[in-house]
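wait is this the right file?? whatever heres the structure
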């Protein structure tokens, strides 16, 4: 099932909140997202101040969720409980698959 852009954003933020600062390769595995998509989404999240870049050494970069990003997860969870925001939730609601 294809995820919406919003779901990909949330999956990346959630991975960073749960597992802490990570390199981009690890984020791809935890958030189950293609590396090329990740690069684009990380840039958007950094621009929106939801993710920050931390430089550990000369070439080592990790990404972490900002304090601004954390409340978004709980709000997203509340919305998905009330409304079928995700395509998968909408399909379940109408009984297309379980």
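ok assuming it is, sequence goes like this
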């Amino acid at each position: 099932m294809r995820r919406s852009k919003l779901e990909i954003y949330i999956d990346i933020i959630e991975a960073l909140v749960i597992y802490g600062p990570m390199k981009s390769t690890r984020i791809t595995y935890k958030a189950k997202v293609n590396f090329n998509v990740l690069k684009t989404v990380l840039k958007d999240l950094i621009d929106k101040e939801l993710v920050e870049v931390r430089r550990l050494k000369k070439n080592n970069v990790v990404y972490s969720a900002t304090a601004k990003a954390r409340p978004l997860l709980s709000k997203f969870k509340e919305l998905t409980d009330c409304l079928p925001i995700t395509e998968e939730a909408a399909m379940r609601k109408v009984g297309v698959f379980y």
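The radius of gyration is 15 Å. so i think its the right one actually
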